[in-house]
């Protein structure tokens, strides 16, 4: 994974946190929702990543006139033979970039529900599996509201993380201009999709202490009923809390982060580091919160202050449990 990251960094300047989250999503077999203004290398990152892994990459530009068949595929009638043949859509790939996903209506966005959760598509009663590994990275633009459609809650919940991408620093922007206007960089493939599958399996074998799992459960439960965590005043700001998928994503994400950091076990710091990205899009804020300018990140910050992470488990005990 270090070699993959090195190759991507030869092309993409800065965005370290974003790149780390992309690798976490790949190791956890989760999907990523990225929010940021245009021109921040979101498309370039996924395309470069596919090149380093010798994987297939496809990009769908979401527009208001798309129909579900444009994504998953359809049945076409052949006049010569009198039979129907199935044409598979662009979702049959390893890395799928759903660009500006909020530009398409809800029926098109919902076409991704089955493929994101079950990793399969059903066309005319026949089920087709997508290739492994499979990662959907969807982008949306936060500064434009005209001509956009909000994502259905059922689909938002299927994204493992929502990552906010910010502008680069002046030094990074100087390097960006230097690279883009200079000689193009040739990206070298350094891994295969088979090797990635082996890494995903190795990542799932990392040890997670039961106290950390309990912390994840308490944190997610507090988003549903803040009063139980001693924050009754926050209940009016939350209409719906996070689902059990959030608890699973917290544990899986912390596991992948620990794996990237070269450890065989998860520390509380890993879970705290990833909690905001896992929870921010799963909270449904009330009209009162929107009127007062309260954000999901502020609510998550208060919950984590009220529910501190458990102490680091003794390393000797963790190593023993991880090896056993």
From TrEMBL:
InterPro entries (UniProt xref): ATPase_AAA-3 (IPR011703), CbbQ/NirQ/NorQ/GpvN (IPR050764), ChlI/MoxR_AAA_lid (IPR041628), P-loop_NTPase (IPR027417), Sigma_54_int (IPR002078)
Top-level taxon: Bacteria
Domain Sigma-54 factor interaction: 1-141
GO biological process: regulation of DNA-templated transcription
Pfam families: AAA_3, AAA_lid_2
CDD domains referenced in this protein's UniProt entry, alphabetically: AAA (cd00009)
Gene3D superfamilies: Magnesium chelatase subunit I, C-Terminal domain (1.10.8.80), P-loop containing nucleotide triphosphate hydrolases (3.40.50.300)
Keywords assigned: ATP-binding, Nucleotide-binding
GO molecular function, one term: ATP binding
Membership in a protein family: Belongs to the MoxR family.
UniProt-recorded name of the protein: MoxR family ATPase
Organism of this sequence: Azohydromonas caseinilytica
């Amino acid at each position: 994974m270090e070699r993959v990251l090195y190759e991507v960094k030869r092309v993409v300047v800065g965005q370290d946190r974003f790149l780390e989250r992309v690798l976490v999503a790949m190791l956890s077999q989760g999907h990523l929702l990225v929010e940021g203004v245009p021109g921040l290398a979101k498309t370039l990152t996924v395309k470069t990543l596919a090149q380093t892994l010798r994987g297939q990459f496809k990009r769908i530009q979401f527009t208001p006139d798309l129909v579900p068949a444009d994504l998953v595929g359809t049945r076409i009638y052949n006049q010569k033979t009198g039979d129907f043949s199935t044409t598979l859509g662009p979702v049959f790939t390893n890395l799928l970039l759903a660009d500006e996903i909020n530009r398409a209506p809800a029926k098109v966005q919902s076409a991704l529900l089955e493929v994101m959760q079950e990793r399969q598509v059903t066309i005319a009663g026949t089920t087709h599996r997508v290739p492994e590994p499979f990662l959907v990275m969807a982008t949306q633009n936060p500064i434009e509201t005209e001509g956009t459609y909000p994502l259905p809650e059922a689909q938002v919940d299927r994204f493992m993380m929502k990552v906010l991408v910010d502008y680069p620093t002046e030094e990074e922007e100087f390097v960006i201009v230097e690279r883009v206007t200079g000689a193009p960089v040739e990206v070298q493939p350094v891994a295969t999709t088979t090797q990635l599958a082996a890494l995903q399996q190795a990542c799932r074998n990392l040890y997670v202490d039961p106290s950390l799992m309990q912390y994840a459960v308490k944190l997610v439960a507090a988003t549903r009923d803040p009063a139980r965590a001693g924050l009754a005043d926050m209940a009016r700001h939350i209409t719906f809390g996070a689902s059990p998928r959030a608890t699973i994503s917290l544990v899986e994400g912390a596991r992948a982060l620990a794996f990237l950091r070269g450890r065989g076990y998860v520390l509380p710091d890993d879970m705290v580091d990833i909690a905001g990205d896992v929870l921010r899009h799963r909270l449904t804020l009330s009209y009162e919160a929107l009127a007062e300018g309260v954000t999901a990140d502020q609510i998550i910050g208060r919950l984590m202050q009220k529910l501190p992470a458990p102490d680091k488990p003794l390393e000797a005990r963790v190593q023993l449990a991880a090896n056993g």
